[in-house]
Write a structure and sequence with these properties.
Strand content: under 5%
Low-confidence stretches: none
InterPro entries: Homeodomain-like_sf (IPR009057), HTH-type_Tx_Regulator (IPR050624), HTH_TetR (IPR001647)
Radius of gyration: 20 Å
Protein name: TetR/AcrR family transcriptional regulator
CATH topology of the largest domain: Tetracycline Repressor, domain 2
Keywords: DNA-binding, Repressor
Number of helices: 14
Number of strands: 0
Mean pLDDT: 84
Largest sheet: none
Organism: Bacillus salitolerans
Length: about 280
């Protein structure tokens, strides 16, 4: 296991046990069996570690959802798969989410707010893509209203599950929300959000990743992957970052080659944003 990942996993154990505020860098390093110096080679501070944990959490959820939205073959089952994947991800990380909300994070840094806005925009893109796949021109007038309705359902039911001890049936929940969303899509006729108004509300994606940062993210992933089509595709994508020579069709094909690999789903999300797909 890489040192940085080890620190993150051990820190999560301590945060869950005694809270973020009550956990010191000294306690984290002792739990990891390393020196403070080794910690500060990976993270400048505990706050930077917390941001990295949130980053990891959001990357996992957004990449899982984007993968489902783009790869589910049958559109008549797509809403169910979307909601099931969303709540399955939240359920797996429920303790972490509760801990963050309970601690209130002391304050929200500009960097953290920027990251959350970035992931929110990625989520918007995935939901709009899903709506267009399922309904096409049928809901064009109300697709942005429908997107916010879907996000509202996601948020409300997430809070219900996080803060109430209720039996959790993910299958039933996904079915129920898929039905509600379908009813809204087929019977909504009065739009509030036009495309133009949505663009006014929509802020630029300020967390765009530079070519240099992307290469830094890709390199350790290349070292971890065994020789395969996915590894060769990722290697070619890295070369494309350094020196663009491939056509858009080939780049799109390379992204599709790695999209379903468990270790690559998150990097696909970032690469497709960089390459404007």
């Amino acid at each position: 296991m890489m040192k940085k990942q080890l620190i993150m996993e051990k820190a999560l154990e301590l945060f869950a046990k005694q809270g973020i505020e009550s956990t010191s860098v000294q306690q984290i390093t002792e739990h990891c069996g390393m020196s403070k110096g080794a910690f500060y080679l990976s993270f400048k501070s505990k706050d930077e570690l917390i941001v990295a944990l949130i980053d990891q959490f959001m990357i996992q959820i957004t990449s899982d959802i984007d993968s489902v939205v783009r790869n589910t073959s049958k559109c008549d089952n797509l809403l169910y798969e979307f909601y099931y994947t969303t709540y399955h991800s939240f359920h797996k990380n429920a303790d972490f989410v509760r801990m963050l909300i309970k601690e209130q994070m002391r304050s929200f840094s500009k960097n953290l707010l920027s990251k959350m806005h970035y992931y929110d925009q990625l989520m918007n893109q995935s939901i709009i893509f899903m709506i267009e796949r399922i309904y096409g021109e049928e809901v064009k007038l109300v697709q942005y209203d429908l997107m916010y309705c879907i996000k509202g359902l996601m948020k409300t039911y997430s809070e219900l599950l996080l803060f109430n001890s209720v039996p959790l049936d993910l299958h039933l929940l996904a079915q129920s929300l898929a039905e509600k969303t379908d009813l809204l899509a087929k019977h909504s006729t009065i739009p509030f959000l036009s495309k133009e108004l949505f663009q006014v509300f929509r802020q630029p994606m300020t967390e765009s990743v530079s070519k240099e940062k992307l290469i830094v993210l890709v390199e350790p992933l290349l070292e971890e992957l065994e020789e395969s089509i996915e590894k060769e595709s990722l290697r070619l994508l890295k070369e494309q970052l350094n020196e663009p020579t491939l056509s858009r069709a080939i780049v799109k094909g390379l992204l599709e080659n790695i999209r379903n690999h468990p270790q690559c789903k998150w990097i696909v999300l970032v690469l497709q944003e960089y390459f404007k797909f």
